[in-house]
Each structure stands twice: as C-alpha cells, then as structure tokens.
Amino acid sequence: MGDLKKGEQQESLDEWFELFSGLPLQHSERESRLIRFCERHKMNILSAMPWVASELAEHCGFACLFNLIHLYGGRKIYLPKEVTRFCQIYNLTISAHSYQKIYKKIDSSGYLDTPSTWGVFIAIRRAAMQVAMKEDVSPKLLTQTFGITMRSIRLIKSRNTC
Questions:
Q1: pLDDT tens readout for residues 88-101
Q2: pTM of the entire structure?
Q3: What's the CA gap between 154 and 143, in Å, rounded?
Q4: Sequence-ordered list of residues with C-beta below 8 angstroms from that of 92, at least 6 positions apart, any chain
C-alpha cells in the first residue's frame, strides 16, 4: 500500500515538475493545467499570492486573473469608479461588492499596482511546495521537483509550524 502511494506521489510530482518549470504561455495547455491545479488547491494558492491577485482570482477566477496579469502584470492599471466601466476596459466580470474591495486600495490618481506574472507564478509555486510538504513528500523528491535546497525546505517547514 505504501508503494502505491509513493508511486502516485511520484506521478504527481513529475507532473508538478513540468508544470512549475517556468511560466506557461498564455492560452496553452500548461496554463490550463496550472489553472486546474490552482482550483484544486484554491485556499493554499489564494493565501500565498499577492492580495490583488488573490482578490481577483477569488472573485473572477484564475483564468481571468492569468489573462489580466499576462496583459497588465507589473504595471499600474486605472480603476474607474463604476464597476461596469472597469469590466468593459479589462474584459472581466466582477461583482460590484468585490470591485469596491479592490477599489478602496487604489492610489490618489485612481491607479492600482498589479503584480507581475512572474511574482504570481512564484507565489503559486511556493504554495505547491507547501502542499507537497503537507502531503509528506520526501525532502529528496522536493529538491528534485522544485529545485530547492534542503536548507530552503527546513526554512519553509519551520515557518509553517509557527
């Protein structure tokens, strides 16, 4: 039974290795798989991402978030007062209540800093490492899958136990 679980764990990590080996291209199969991964581990992913990305993913979906950060990531975007205008400009669907939560965080000129695509990807990757650690994946497999050092693994584990 233990060997079966290790085999499944290895398959999962092999998939994760390919999934987290770099930024996926927009509208690619890898991006679709990353979206499915994020939806399966939604709470872990949302808690690891920058707050703007987390809010957008929670209220618009991961596909919508990835589209927005591919187009505008790492830049300031203008947020009009009306949610309908925002939806038209950025081709998103978001409720007025959710939009107001984000709108409260804009600067005095009406702009909001969006996280970079790379920053969001690294946050998702970090959450994936934490998920793997919770599933008791061996440190050796973690180093092979994510390319991190044993020291990094110990540091992440110590932060998660506090």
A1: 999 888 999 999 99
A2: 0.85
A3: 11
A4: 56, 60, 64, 68, 86
Q: Does residue 154 sit within a domain?
A: no
CA dist list (Å): 140 to 26, 145, 147, 152, 154: 32, 9, 10, 12, 12
Question: How open is the CA angle 30-32-38, to the nearest 5 degrees?
Answer: 100
Question: What is the identity of the amino acid at 20?
Answer: F
Q: What SS3 class is residue 21?
A: coil
C-alpha distances in angstroms, 62 versus 30, 38, 46, 48, 113?
13, 7, 10, 14, 18
Total domain count for the chain? 1
Per the rule left: phi > 0, alpha: psi between -120 and 50, beta: everything else, 52 is alpha
Structural domain contains residue 52:
yes
Q: Which amino acid is at 75?
A: R
pLDDT at 28 (0 to 100): 93
Instruction: Flag whether 11 is in a domain.
Output: yes
152 found inside a domain: no
Tell me: the pLDDT tens digits for 101-138?
999 999 999 999 999 999 999 999 999 998 888 888 88
Determine the structural domain holding residue 27 and report its residue range: 2-75+114-127
